[in-house]
Amino acid sequence: MKKMLIIVALISLTLSISAKVKIEVNVPAVVKDAFAKLFPNVKEVKWEKENKDYEAGFVNNGEITTANFDKKGNLLETETIIDIANLPKTIEEYLAEKYNGFRISEVSKVVDVKGVITYETEITKGKIIKDLIFNQNGKFIKISKEED
Predict the structure, then answer these.
(1) Higher local confidence (pLDDT), 116 or 21
(2) pTM for the whole thing?
(3) Which of 10, 66, 67, 76 is paired with 115 by a 20 to 30 Å CA distance?
(4) For 131-138, which contacts have Cβ atoms below 8 Å and span 24 or more sequence positions?
(5) Do residue 76 and residue 11 come from a single domain?
(6) Is the per-residue pLDDT at 22 higher than 90?
(7) Same domain, yes or no, for 67 and 121?
């Protein structure tokens, strides 16, 4: 079952990445060096430009992860796809109450440069897609994306 979840997550990440408007670019050496210091065991990395920053997509210890860096090689945040079971229960309760009938399609744990943790949940109902952001304790913060 866990292997199946990883496969589904890989497919979701691939589709998510390809759905965004990003262009593969040459990554400055300072950014690649910073990445190598933080993730020395990662061998395969897909680099993309996201606005003015650089995003590395990779698998780290079996987890699908992205890491965003500025042009000086400073880490901005990491985002890791997690199992729904690892969400704070308050998030699941919030979604059940406010978004009854929606399905959780993807869950990510985001850690910014200061160590602040947030959770991003993508929920769907038919063609409706919403990304909701929650704090570390599971309190709703905002909707970051809505598509109908």
Answers:
(1) 116
(2) 0.79
(3) 10
(4) 132/95, 134/88, 134/90, 134/91, 134/94, 136/88, 137/88, 137/90, 138/87, 138/88, 138/89, 138/90, 138/91, 138/94
(5) yes
(6) no
(7) no
